[in-house]
């Protein structure tokens, strides 16, 4: 196994579900428990070659112990924001060369049928992490607006589902800085407020028809992002 192959070795934990007090709930209340879905992708320095050769979990990631440590992070604790929660998860991880963390709040936004997802991922060069990228995805946001180019399509509002994907942060970091990086951006965004304004702005355009939903949605989101940043 060469170096390129080893970089693809990953331990993946999916479908981890908790009830936890993470950020604000759908009604903007802090400290209230809500469903949280967690997914992790972790790569070890040197890949999994040693674990396969020695047939020993000591050379890889013990996902049983990792799951228990994740439960300990969440149990009976309150997290001010989703980012604070992800930082606690990151601190509980074993030594890894790269990582991906996905946090989904399936009921975090009332008008988003599949909730909101936050992801953080590290990128590395020569096995050393050099950057962190943060994303937010509002999944299947339900909007109603007049849409279409034909006259009969302008008589009634139609129900649309829009997914908004935002790359919020990309920090180029030296390995020495990355270990203590604070991924918490400047405070300001209550993402429910951003979604509310986008939905209400679309619904209020009773005399306007949209022929290009992606462009209109992007324009509205970009106007809102001038005022807010990710939590």
Q: Give the end-to-end Cα distance, rounded to a whole number of Å.
A: 41 Å
CATH architecture: 2-Layer Sandwich
Please report the total strand number as a whole number: 7
> What does the main sheet amount to?
7 strands, mixed
Assign an overall shape.
elongated
Derived from helix and strand composition plus strand pairing, the structural class reads: alpha+beta
CATH superfamily: GTP cyclohydrolase I, C-terminal domain/NADPH-dependent 7-cyano-7-deazaguanine reductase, N-terminal domain
The topology string of helices and strands comes to HEEHHEHEEEEHHH
Number of helices: 7
Poorly predicted spans: 1-6, 173-189, 227-231
Major β-sheet strand ordering = 3-1-2-4-5-6-7
Looking at the structure, the CATH topology is GTP Cyclohydrolase I, domain 2
Mean pLDDT: 75
- Which CATH first-tier class would you pick? Alpha Beta
Rg from alpha-carbon coordinates: 21 Å
> How much beta, percentage-wise?
25-35%
Helix content: 25-40%
Name the quaternary structure.
single chain
Return the domain count: 1
């Amino acid at each position: 196994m060469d170096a390129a192959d080893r970089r693809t070795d990953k331990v993946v934990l999916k479908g981890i579900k908790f009830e936890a007090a993470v950020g604000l709930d759908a009604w903007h209340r802090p400290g209230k428990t809500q469903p949280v879905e967690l997914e992790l992708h972790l790569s070890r320095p040197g890949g999994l070659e040693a674990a396969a050769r020695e047939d020993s979990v000591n050379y890889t990631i013990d996902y049983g112990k990792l799951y228990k440590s994740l439960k300990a992070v969440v149990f009976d604790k309150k997290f001010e924001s989703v980012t604070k929660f992800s930082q606690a998860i990151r601190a509980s991880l074993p030594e890894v060369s790269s990582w991906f963390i996905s946090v989904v709040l399936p009921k975090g936004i009332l008008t988003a049928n599949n909730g909101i997802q936050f992801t953080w991922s590290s990128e590395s060069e020569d096995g050393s992490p050099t950057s962190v990228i943060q994303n937010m995805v509002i999944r299947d946001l339900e909007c109603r607006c007049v849409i279409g180019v034909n006259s009969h399509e302008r008589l009634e509002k139609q129900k649309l589902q829009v997914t908004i994907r935002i790359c919020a942060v990309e920090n180029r970091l030296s390995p020495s800085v990355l270990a203590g990086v604070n991924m918490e951006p400047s405070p300001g965004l209550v993402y429910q407020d951003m979604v509310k304004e986008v939905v209400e702005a679309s619904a209020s355009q009773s005399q306007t028809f949209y022929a290009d939903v992606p462009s209109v949605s992007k324009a509205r989101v970009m106007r809102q992002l001038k005022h807010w940043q990710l939590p």
